[in-house]
Design a protein that fits this description.
Blueprint: H1 3-6, H2 10-32, H3 45-48, E1 52-53, E2 56-57
Antiparallel strand pairs: 1-2
Length: 60
């Protein structure tokens, strides 16, 4: 644990540890997924509401 985290209350330390574990699990899951070929660049349009590309509506 870093010096900054030692000054935090135990509940905050647990929360940060849980967040680190979730982050590591999400990164491992992302690496396990197969690579998508021919997909869009950038953020996922479903999550961010970007339903068009260069002014043309896309369907997926």
């Amino acid at each position: 644990m870093t010096d900054e985290r030692k000054d935090l209350p135990p509940a905050a330390q647990r929360a940060l540890a849980e967040a680190d574990a979730r982050r590591k699990a999400a990164e491992a899951e992302a690496k396990a997924r197969p690579k998508e070929y021919g997909g869009r660049d950038g953020p996922e349009p479903v999550r961010f509401g970007d339903w068009e590309k260069k002014g043309i509506a896309i369907d997926f």
